[in-house]
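The following record pairs a protein chain with its ligand, 2-amino-3-ketobutyric acid.
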Amino acid sequence: MLTRALVIGATGQIGYELVPALRKLYGVDNVVAGYHSKKPSGVLLEGPVEQVDVSSRESLEAVIKKSDFDEVYNLAALLSAAGEKNPQLAWKVNMIGHYNVLELAREYGFRVFWPSTIAVFGPTTPKYKTPQHTIIEPITMYGITKYAGELLARYYVQKYDLDVRGVRWPGIISSEALPGGGTTDYAVEIFYYAVEGKPYTCYLREDTELPMMYMPDAIKSVIQLMSANKARLKLYVGYNVSAFSFTPRQLVEEIRKYIPGFKVEYKPDFRQAIADSWPKSLDDSVAREEWGWSPDWTFEAMVKDMLVKIARKLGKKLDIEE
Ligand code: AKB
């Protein structure tokens, strides 16, 4: 049987790479790229696209009604930094949008993927090997909506027997679409500066350690969780998933192995307090036990691959053996 899927937030950092991955699995015509203010481009235009406002039930239902979707991937969200600039909009997109998807899933019967984040954790959470179940007191609107969203999704699973699944992603590093509005965005931006030969000003302190993951593993986590045997799942949403952790200083040192002259200065801004409230590493043993999660990419392999890909994208020559 063919699976039909809608990806909401397809023009964002993760959507831009999830859509082609799903199209490979389900067929190009069976995966609709849902976008809002940012117009689709590149690979997204190889298949169907639809404009959709997740915070409007009418807009969402109009798209859902057009196709018999089996799965909806709701990636629309204002991230941590953007959410602090406009908390009201963050609530609307992250919370009402999530509620609208769950309500329509109840009526139309599709499965849902909805990601949470390390931003659910706060300053009172244990910092190292942060357990799945621990103190959760987020300080950003993004974190609050994501933790409330985890509880809401689990409520729909229990009350209405919905199939809603999701992970808690760390910062995601990728070479295709740029991230926007996150606290971990520096770890992508920095590669563009390094490859262009420009100095970079980092908005986090050099010793700010955060958990991160390379995009191929983020995509793997979605596909692995969505294809996991339902009978084995207990948690359904908010699974801690981790790959590696690093500080800006460690990232710069690794980049300098390939670009020795790369210059960086540190000027922490409001994002420092957000980063300081998050874990430094995660315990993802529940995801490993329930659906066999394990990452493929190491920090060192990610840095090398990013430099190769960004250099190719910018048409720059770097002396790196592939
Ligand atoms: C952010 O920095 O806000 C996101 C996240 C960790 O969820 N990348």
